[in-house]
Design brief:
The chain has about 130 residues and is mostly helical. It is built from 5 helices and no strands. It has one domain. Helix 2 runs parallel beside helix 5 and helix 4 packs antiparallel against helix 5. Keywords: Membrane, Transmembrane, Transmembrane helix.
Length: about 130
């Protein structure tokens, strides 16, 4: 179910790509800083949602369960928080540096690290139990 919802969310990432094309093409007046953060947000969204889906599929395929496996879903949370941090931090008229919402980016990075560690421990536990 989670993977199905995430795949629907990918439509939003694709739509964001059309916005990014308009930004880069000069359709909107943004600073170079904002364009760079929008690009980074879009790129991280695509990469992290793909990584998150792979992590969830690995956990499910291995039959991992418990708190460590649950933490693995943090990778999918990072797919929302990291890009959200980039976009939110660049918001505002003629912004040339991140605003106070840059904290979302750091929360997303923490979710990514916790998610990867959780998934790794859960997968190693399954492997050790099966050995």
């Amino acid at each position: 179910m989670v993977c199905g919802v995430v795949l629907i969310a990918v439509i939003g990432i694709a739509y964001g790509g059309t916005f990014l094309l308009q930004v880069v093409g000069g359709g909107f007046a943004f600073t170079d800083f904002q364009k760079a953060f929008f690009r980074a947000g879009h790129a991280h969204a695509g990469v992290l949602v793909t990584l998150g889906l792979v992590v969830v599929l690995l956990l499910e395929a291995a039959g991992a369960s418990g708190p460590w496996a649950l933490l693995g879903y943090g990778v999918l949370a990072s797919a929302i928080l990291v890009p959200g941090g980039f976009f939110a931090a660049a918001g505002g008229h003629e912004r040339t540096r991140p605003n106070r919402f840059v904290w979302l980016l750091w929360v997303g990075v923490a979710a990514l690290v916790v998610g990867l560690v959780g998934a790794a421990v859960a997968l190693i536990q399954v492997g050790v139990a099966g050995a």
